[in-house]
Amino acid sequence: MGEPLIQVKDISKRFGKHLVLNNLTFTIDERDIYGIIGLSGSGKTTILNLVIGFLKPTKGTVTYKNKNILKIQKEIQNKFGFVTQSGSYYTDLTVLENLHYFGRMYGLNNDDIAKRSKDLLTFLDLTDATHVLSQDLSTGMQRRLDIACALIHNPEVLILDEPTEDLDPLLRKEILTLLKNINDNGTTIILTSHMLNEIESVCTNTAILHNGNIVMSGSPNKIKGLYSTNIEIHLKTYPGKYELIENRLGKANVEKTINLGHKLVIYTSKPEELLRRILDILPGLRERLVDVDVDKPSLEEVFESLTGKKK
Length: 311
What we know:
Layout: E1 6-15, E2 18-28, E3 33-37, H1 44-52, E4 59-64, E5 67-68, H2 73-79, E6 80-83, H3 95-105, H4 110-123, H5 139-151, E7 157-161, H6 169-184, E8 188-193, H7 196-202, E9 205-210, E10 213-218, H8 220-227, E11 231-238, H9 242-249, E12 256-259, E13 264-268, H10 271-284, E14 288-295, H11 299-307
Parallel strand pairs: 3-8, 3-9, 6-7, 7-8
Antiparallel strand pairs: 1-2, 1-4, 4-5, 9-10, 11-13, 11-14, 12-13
């Protein structure tokens, strides 16, 4: 294993007397999609601003390729792209004018801007909106434009603050697919979110932030595995006499059950044994097995248990 691309070491940040982040340490490897999840006000945006050098830490260091980012701000500007929550594009400029403006800001010449703009417009499906004023774009297209402006200089690292905030489910899925495609092209991605199912589906590694501390980090599967030895059995039967199934199963090797109405979720450390019992029970209850799925607890459940808050 080589050195991490980005290392956050013993970082703390105070605003006056208010301690926002308390002694955080984590690493981000090249080509990661690294997710930071936490409740509103937990310090997610502050972490991003520290990583890119917009803020100075009260304590600790952030390094990029073993160099303190505060001492190489010109390199960070050239190698990083940042998509803010509020948006960075100019509403009174067209899509192409925005790309040209940001290209010049990053020091690109006109030929490079033209080539990058053409490639990005195609890649982000914005070609038909090339000469449309940004204020007239749909919400999804505005979000893609924001990402295009951050990618115009072909950065190694793309940072996004709540990229799917305020989007409907279809647009959220569209943006997540786009981020995967960007990552497949070699770009390391760091993003914040409170949409835990999205973090679980797209991120290679993640950190759970609570009360200014990282309470757990690693791949979503590793976090779920470390958190609990229990496995979830998702059971669907017809006609769905789930209360009777719960009663027949009893408490042996059953950590807990959740009757969701359309299915029964059973937590157990011995899924094979419990599945055999379920199959034995169903015929006597005249229940037909419709579907059964075995999985680790969701990241959302881990988050809820670690923070005491539901998402």
